[in-house]
Design brief:
- The protein is of the alpha/beta class.
- The protein has a single domain, classed as Rossmann fold, CATH 3.40.50.2300.
- It is built from five helices and five strands, in the order βαβαβαβαβα.
- It has helices at about 15-25, 40-50, 65-75, 90-100, 115-129; strands spanning about 10, 35, 55, 85, 105-110.
- Helix 2 runs parallel beside helix 3.
- The chain is globular, with a radius of gyration of 13 Å.
- The protein starts with 7 loop residues before the first strand and ends with a helix.
Length: about 130
């Protein structure tokens, strides 16, 4: 698992999802959490601060998750940033596209705390390898 002092960015247009994810991460012991409601806000935060992990939705206003991923991929500075997609999108073509953009994991909403914990553990182990 990521160290408990890891800085995590939650990006989702739905406030309820952001609150649920914050509470879930708090239960797992994570407290250094920031949030953004769209890709534009997330990009600004990512330029200002260093994050250890990002939870990212796909469907959002202003700048969606795919557009943000493309911007991050174009900027080599973010190549090692672990990104977990948390989305209700189940379209195989879309999932293939975001995997091709270098995400670390894909979680289909609604998720559970054990799923979050497992996927975060998988990402952390892959990052250490």
């Amino acid at each position: 698992m990521f160290p408990l002092n890891s800085k995590i960015l939650i990006v989702d247009e739905m406030k309820g999802i952001r609150i649920w994810l914050q509470k879930s991460l708090n239960i797992l012991g994570y407290t250094d959490l920031k949030e953004a409601s769209n890709g534009e806000e997330a990009l600004e935060l990512l330029k200002q601060e260093k994050f250890d992990l990002v939870f990212l939705d796909i469907v959002m206003p202003k700048m969606d998750g795919i557009a943000l991923l493309k911007k991050l991929k174009a900027d080599g500075h973010f190549n090692s940033l672990p990104i977990i997609i948390l989305s209700a999108e189940t379209d195989g073509q879309l999932i293939t596209e975001v995997i091709g953009l270098g995400i670390s994991q894909y979680i289909i909403k609604p998720a559970t705390i054990p799923v979050l914990q497992k996927k975060m553990g998988d990402v952390f182990l892959a990052k250490k390898a």
